[in-house]
TrEMBL record:
Co-factor binding comment: Binds 1 zinc ion.
Comp. bias intervals (Gly residues): 22-34
GO biological process, one term: peptide metabolic process
Quaternary structure note: Monomer.
Top-level taxonomy: Eukaryota, Metazoa, Chordata, Craniata, Vertebrata
Residue spans of biased composition, Basic residues class: 1-10
UniProt EC number: 3.4.24.59
PANTHER family: MITOCHONDRIAL INTERMEDIATE PEPTIDASE, PROTEASE M3 THIMET OLIGOPEPTIDASE-RELATED
Protein known as: Mitochondrial intermediate peptidase
Species this chain originates from: Ursus maritimus (Polar bear)
Cofactor: Zn(2+)
Span list, region Disordered: 1-34
Function: Cleaves proteins, imported into the mitochondrion, to their mature size.
Gene name in the database record: MIPEP
Amino acid sequence: TRKRWHHVARRGPLPWKHGARGRGGSCGAGAGPRGGGRGCSGIKMLCGLFGVPELSAPEGFRIAQENALRKADLLVERVCSLPPGPQTVLIFDELSDSLCRVADLADFVKIAHPERAFREAAEEACRSIGTMVEKLNTNVELYQSLQKLLADKKLVDSLDPETRRVAELFMFDFEISGIHLDEEKRKRAVDLNVKILDLSNTFLMGTNFPNKIEKHLLPEHIHRNFVVTGSHVIIDGLHAEAPDDLVREAAYKIFLYPNAGQLKCLEELLSNRDLLAKLVGYSTYSHRALQGTIAKNPGKLVHPELMPWDPPYYSGVIRAERYNIEPSLYCPFFSLGACMEGLNILFTKLLGITLYAEQPAKGEVWCEDVRKLAVVHESEGLLGYIYCDFFQRADKPHQDCHFTIRGGRLKEDGEYQLPVVVLMLNLPHSSRNSPTLLTPGMMENLFHEMGHAMHSMLGRTRYQHVTGTRCPTDFAEVPSILMEYFANDYRVVTQFARHYQTGQSLPKNMVSRLCESKKVCAAADMQLQVFYATLDQIYHGKHPLRTSTTDILRETQEKFYGLPYVPNTAWQLRFSHLVGYGAKYYSYLMSRAVASMVWKECFQQDPFNRAAGERYRREMLAHGGGREPMLMVQGMLQKCPSVDDFVSALVSDLDPDFETFLMDSE
C-alpha cells in the first residue's frame, strides 16, 4: 500500500494573492542554484533543479546522463538474460524511465533556464540520451527478448490489458526503426531516420526564416511597419493584425514567397518519410502515423470578397465592434490569484483535489518567481507536483506549454513514483499598483494548460511509458480542450472572477458577450483547420505525389477553404506543424470533437457534478496512454461515437445558442 504522505512539507495557500501586490520576478544572483541554504534533506547542501542533487550546477547533467546510461546498460543485460514474462515489460519500462527522467528534464531546461551554461549542458544531455535511444532501438538481442514474449500466445493471453498494450507500443517503436528487417534494410531504416531528423530540423528553421525585399519595391509609407536594414525591408511574419490592408497584403505575398531550398527540403522530407513507412511495412506514412490513434487509419478521417490575409484582422474587428470585449474591461476581474482560486474550486468540487503552495528548497527552481504546487487528494494524499513558470523574462520562449519532467509509475517496492510537470506561461508581472492581471485569452490558456497538468497528475498507470499525456496525439488534447469549456461557463467563472479592487463579480452579460464573440468567424476558422488537416493527409498519403506540393496546396485550398490561392506564394513552406504533427494535424479537430461530446453529455448540465468528475478520472484521465483511446471515449460517453457524431459535435459548437446559460443573459 502507498503511504499517504511521501514526506512532511510545509504547505500553504496558493501563492498569488487576489488583490495584493505580488513580487516581480527576476532571475538574478541568489535566485539560482548557486545560492546557499538548506538542501532537500535538511543538510547544508545544494538541492539541484527539481530536487535532483546532481543538478545544482550545469556539470551535473553529465553525471546524471552517465548514471542513466550506466543503469540502462545493466537493465539491457538483465532483460536479455531473463525468460520472457510480465517482468520483461516492467524492465523495459524501467529502462525507458531511467532515460526519460534525464531527457525530459533536459528537454525543458535547454529552452527555459535563464543561464546559458545550464541550457548548453541540457542540450548535450539530450543529444547523448538520444544517441543511446537510437542504439537501443536497433539492439537485436533486446528486440528478441520482447519478441519472444509477444510470440508466445499463452504468455500474451496471461498479460493484463495495460501490460499487453505497453509491450505492443515498445514493439511498435522497434519496428519503426526497422529492427525486424534483414541487416541491409535495417541499416537503411536507421539512415532514413537520421536523414528525416536532419531534414525536419532544417525545415523547422526555414519556416521562421524572414524574407527580404528591396526597399524601392514597397510603398514608402508602409516601411515603418517592418524592419529596414540598408536597402532592404525585412518581412519576418504575416502581420495579420495590422489594420492597413496594404501591410497585410505585402507581408503575406513576401513572407510566403517560395524559397527553392525550403521547397526541396519539404519534398525530400515527405519522400523520405514515405520510403521509411514502406520499408517497415506500411502503405503510406499516414497509415504508420495513425497506428493506435482514435482515427486508426487515414480512410476514417472526414474532410467535411476577402483575401487570405484578411480573416484574422476582420474577425478581430467584428468581435470588438459587435460585442465590446475590450480586454482591459475584463482584466481587473481576472487576477492570477483569482484564476488559480477558480481552478482550485473546480478541482475540489469535481475531483476532491486541492492545490497547495510548497516552499521549494534552495536551487530547486531555475528562477525565483517559479512556484511549486503540491496536488493533494482529500483521501489519497499527495498525487504529484506542478512547477509554475508563469512570468515573462528575457530569452524565455514565448509559448504556453506543459512539460513532463518525471512520469508516474508503480515502482518495484510498491511505492508510486509521483509525476512532476512544469506549466510554462508568459504572463505579465505584477506592478506596484496591481497584481498580475490576465486577459480572457490568457485565462483560457491557463485553464487549457492546467488540463494537461491534471492529465499527468491523475494518470495512475503502472508504466511511465504511457503516463499522463504520453498517449496518442488525437487524444492528448482532450483534457486541455475540455477545460476551455469550463473556462467559458458562467457558473464556473462566477465562482472566482472578482474585481481585484472592489471585489465586484464579473457581470453575467459580460461573460455572455465574451462567449458569443468567440463564435464570430468560428466556422471559417474550422474550415481553415479542415484545410490544413486535409493538406497534411495528402502530403503524407500516396507517393510519389502526383504534382508539386504547391499545386496540391492550391487545389486543396480552393476545394476546402474557399478563399483564393495567391499566385507565387507557398504557405506550406511555413507550415512548421508538418514536422511535429506529420499526418496527425487532424488531431486538434478530433480532440475538440471528443471534448465537446464529453462536455455536453457529462458536464453541461452541472459543471461541478462530482459523480461525472469521478467518472472522467476513472474512464479517461487515469489510463494515460495505457488503454486504447476509443475505449476511453466509449467508457466516458457510454456509447461508441460514429464519424457523424464527431462531425455533429464540432458543428454544434458553432451554434450561437450552444451555452444554455446564454438564453437568459442579461
